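During the reporting period the student researcher (J.K.) took over the structure-prediction task from the postdoctoral fellow and processed the backlog of single-chain submissions. One of the processed entries is reproduced below for the supervisory committee.
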Amino acid sequence: MTAITHATTGVTAIANSSGLPAGVTAAYASDVITISGTPTQAGTYNYTITPASSCGAATATGTIVVTADGTVASASSSPTLCINTALTPITHATTVVTGIASSSGLPAGVTAAYASDVITISGTPSASGTFNYTITPSDCGAATATGTIIVEAASAGGSISSAATECYGDNGPTTLTLSGYTGSITGWEKSEDNGNNWIYIEY
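J.K. obtained the following structure tokens:
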């Protein structure tokens, strides 16, 4: 805690003190009462410090408000979605949080917002990749919201590297190679009527 001071005159020491939070104490030196320490319990503390003096009944009084450390729950989901597709909002429940101080690692097009004890991540990602994000709340303590969003690039069919001519009914060894595709190959199809109808080929 940043030290609190009370200037005094005609005081020689502290007779007693009350109302200070645990971990905080008062000391007297050179006409100044100094209150310092590290509070270990949250709450509102109205303190009274009675000096040792030969005359008068003056006391040092004040208030110290100790806020509890904020907490942030785990992400409601760790989604995998396609690029340029709206993200189903990810939420982090919080306590003793008042806002967002900073955020990093979110994909372009996705933002974080705070309202009513919840951090909500939403938007439409416009970049692909694996994004490990960190959101730092505005509060006491070091709790952060962390998680992962995986954005997959748009699929591309690619092309056959070379053409081949085969006679009908020929089961020759011709090999066709697909290149330049994005995503995973899940199967092949063939057409026997110039692309009007397609037949699935077991992959």
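The committee noted the following: The chain has a mean pLDDT of 91.
J.K. will present the remaining backlog at the next meeting.
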